[in-house]
Prior knowledge:
Layout: H1 2-18, H2 22-33, H3 40-56, H4 60-69, H5 73-82, H6 86-95, H7 99-108, H8 112-121, H9 125-137, H10 145-160, H11 166-183
Helix pairs in contact: 1-2, 2-3, 3-4, 4-5, 5-6, 6-7, 7-8, 8-9, 9-10, 10-11
Amino acid sequence: DEIVSIESSLSAAELAEARGRYADAKWHYRRLIAHAQVINYEYEEWAQRLAKMYTLLGRHKEAGLVWLYLRFFEQARTSFEKGRAHLELAHCLALGKHWVAAARIFAQEERPVLSAIAYEEGKDHQKAYELWKLVGQDARLSASSYERALAQFNAGMAAAKLERSEATAAMARRHIVAAQRLLE
């Protein structure tokens, strides 16, 4: 009974797609990918077709999310760019290990923690340090000792990775000590 349902849904999706009824095709493809017990290549093909329907409907963010789920990073990136889905684009870039590009977008979108993490991954410890320092000074954290301590600790760890000198070593120690005091 379920096999017939899958076959009829696939036929209906393909027919709707061929007739240019993309919203109907999208509905059928979404129904198809709800069947997790199907063979992998069928599921992936249906998901790809679903992403195509979203694209044809001008729903680029949704298309990008499907592409990202499938780990088709280039298609996801293109879809997010067309859909002006900046945060999703940054996450896509990070998943594809394009750390500095992701960090820049996170910073533009006012996500300093995500930006600092991406800069760390991209080995730009100076920018990571500067961001962690700013996060630690954010007034929104004034009532939260734990989060301030975490920001101080991360600033200290980033400072420890900067070019080795007495000044950077002292700076790293100051942040680590500040984190410890906040936790105490």
